[in-house]
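Intended use. Records like the one below are meant for learning the mapping from a protein sequence to its folded structure. Do not use them to infer anything beyond what is encoded.
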Amino acid sequence: MKKCLICLLALGCVLGLCASASAANVQKVGIAMGQTGGGSIGQYMQEMAAYFASLENGDTEYELFLADAAGNGETQLTQLRNLEAQGVQVILLNPVDASIVNALTEEGHEFSVPLVLMGPDLMTVDRQGSHLQGAYEPLMALEKACYVGTNLRQAGLAQGRILAAQSRCGDLNQDGKIGYVILEGDVNQVENRLRTEFSLKAVVDAGCAVECLDDIAGNWTRDEARQGCADALAAYGSAIDAIICSNDALAAAAAGAIEEAGLQVGKDVYLLGIDGRDEAIRLIRDGKMTGTVRPDLQSQARLAVEVAVKLLAGEETQPYHWAEYAAVTQANAN
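Structure written out for the chain above:
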């Protein structure tokens, strides 16, 4: 415990979980999270710590230094420098936002240890509207940096597979094709286009014919999404087999419009979202949504650890490592 206390005081907001002195090979691992709290990022860190522990044996043990920046970019930059000074051999980094990557590259600091970048979807934007993919590329160009995470293409594919798994690929009216309505937040955003494009790709790849009946811009507001969905239901009626939404908030708004129209999800129309929000899970359990998708945190955390272990062993890795999304339907919503 004395050694752990020294780690804590020396690093400032970095907690050292120390291995025993009996192991022949003790490897130091830094895990720098943007903000843990009680949410999914905290679960992610716990999964990584547990998986590192499971990989220990008589020859190798891992000494983990866990850092929580509490959403503060300056704090995280300080923690990263302290982790390197402490002698960690690899750093798993969940950035507060893209500014962390910009700061690291702008100051010309190249880490002497490998970096495993873990974060939000690469094809999203930060608070200033800059695409994270572009912001990450300077750091990804470093010899010892790689990325582990999810992307919006996978979210769309996982969503589309839920529809393709339904009877007749979701062709409720049995007219030989899936008539669908897209409910988007903003039709001009690349995030929407990617989710929609790859959701439909999964359906088509399953051998199903599709027909777009309407593409509605909900503008990320529930009222507009609900009204747009109601108008589409009134205009196209039973021709609509599925309503494919860019996120769960839009799907929840569509669920209200479906109910008001006297229709039933699963019998008259399928309704799909993305994100795995608690509200969506409740709607799925109640039979008011067909399904949603969410990042598989356990698989993603384990993949990050496996990449870090390879780097510790001096093995070469690919620059990008993609984790899966998990489908949530009535079969597993509980």
